[in-house]
Write a structure and sequence with these properties.
This protein is mainly α and 146 residues long. The protein has one domain. Helix content is 87%, strand content 0%. Helix 1 packs antiparallel against helix 2 and helix 2 packs antiparallel against helix 3. The protein is elongated.
Length: 146
Amino acid sequence: MIAQTIQLALAPVFVLVAIGNIMNILSARLGRVVDRSRHLQNRHSNTQGAEHDAIVREIRLADNRIALIGRALLLLVCSGLCIGLTVALLFLEEFAHAGLQPFAAAVFILAIALLMAALLLFLKETREATAALRIPQDLLELDRTL
């Protein structure tokens, strides 16, 4: 019976590994955004006019991206905790026969829902980053044939 419980607990553990990998990616992105925002903050007081406005727009974007990544990381941590709770409930069910399988299933579903919400925030953050990095049309000089 314990072998069966271990097999049953493997799927949630694989999800936990995936969550860890996504958290690693988000942490790296967060580090880059924070570094960029620090650079922009240093330039903020030394700019004027259109250049200053561009710095402020980019600082606002960086702030929003930091918030999105922070929320995504929070959801991933909560999802990971739910995965751990699911595994614990499966083992408690095995040893105590307390009828915890429906509760374990509900916690696992919650973990997957939290993971999906975090992935949606990740998608939103990457879309914002991509939009911010678009090259302005006037710099592309599309009217010229090269």
